[in-house]
């Protein structure tokens, strides 16, 4: 690695760990700090209250651990931190302290603005995206970075969605199984970009098989037998 490239890499790592110089404004609720490059509107308070409500229901929640969330006001700023994940709604820099970066969004409308320029639908508001990424950071904090990256995708993304959606009742397994059986696009993360399949797999172990969150995240789990059991479950 040439000296110039090494300097660039070191500078980027330092910025990813401490991006505050690029984000002059902030608001905080409990242990969630929202940073922005422009003044935050009054709606930031209720938004953060919603995020806290979503993440604090997890047994992994640690009120003493501050999570920093950075709202990137342009696709270019988000790409600076997201790199190959620049089309995602948000990322958590797990290896670099767990900071969360969210792509351009409207705090006033509680929506993320996707790569197409359209806002995300009502069921996936900005609060959902923030809570999802914070859940990733909480998981890595609890089990360690190496163990975190060994988990199956349904354990990482499914549990993060389980936290972020904060559904008022049990997962609708009957509907999920029907979507799975007809190969609906929303059940395929590669086609839809959604984690509904992963969330259903994680929720089945938690809600139908009685696993604790700590057992769910203790070691890698093959999702195939779980989905086979879900498909065959006569009680759904």
Distance between the termini: 56 Å
Quote the average pLDDT.
94
* Rg, Å, rounded: 18 Å
Secondary structure category: alpha/beta
| CATH fold-level name of the largest domain | Glutaredoxin
User: Portion of residues in helices?
Assistant: 40-55%
Largest sheet: spatial strand order: 1-2-3-5-4
Shape: globular
Unreliable spans: none
Estimate the strand proportion.
5-15%
- CATH architectural label of the largest domain: 3-Layer(aba) Sandwich
Please summarize the sheet with the most strands.
5 strands, mixed
Q: What is the number of helices?
A: 11
Number of domains: 2
Question: Could you explain the architecture of this structure?
Answer:
The protein has 236 residues and is α/β, with parallel strands linked by helices. The chain folds into 2 domains: 1-144, 3-Layer(aba) Sandwich (Glutaredoxin); 151-236, no CATH class. Helix content is 47%, strand content 11%. It has 11 helices and 7 strands. It has a 5-stranded mixed β-sheet, with helices on both faces. A two-stranded antiparallel ribbon has the order 6-7.
List keywords for this structure.
single chain; 236 residues; alpha/beta; Glutaredoxin; 2 domains; five-stranded mixed sheet; 47% helix; globular
């Amino acid at each position: 690695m040439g000296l110039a490239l090494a300097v660039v890499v070191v500078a980027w790592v330092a910025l990813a760990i401490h991006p505050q110089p690029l984000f002059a404004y902030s608001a905080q609720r409990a242990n969630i700090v929202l940073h922005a490059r422009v003044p935050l509107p009054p709606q930031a308070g209720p938004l953060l209250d919603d995020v806290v409500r979503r993440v604090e229901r997890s047994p992994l929640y640690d009120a003493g651990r501050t999570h920093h969330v950075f709202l990137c006001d342009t696709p270019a700023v988000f790409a600076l931190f997201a790199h190959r994940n620049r089309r995602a709604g948000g990322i958590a820099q797990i290896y670099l302290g767990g900071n969360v970066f969210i792509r351009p969004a409207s705090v006033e409308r509680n929506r993320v603005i996707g790569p197409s320029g359209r806002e995300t639908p009502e069921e996936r508001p900005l609060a959902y995206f923030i809570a999802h990424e914070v859940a990733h950071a909480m998981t890595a904090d609890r089990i360690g970075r190496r163990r975190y990256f060994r988990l199956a995708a349904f354990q990482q993304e499914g549990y993060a969605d389980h936290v972020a959606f904060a559904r008022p009742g049990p997962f609708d397994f009957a509907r999920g199984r029907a979507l799975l059986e007809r190969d609906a696009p929303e059940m395929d993360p590669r086609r839809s970009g959604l984690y509904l399949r992963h969330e259903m797999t994680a929720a089945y172990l938690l809600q139908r098989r009685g696993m604790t969150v700590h057992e769910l995240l203790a070691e890698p789990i093959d999702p195939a037998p779980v989905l086979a059991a879900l498909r065959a479950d006569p009680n759904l």
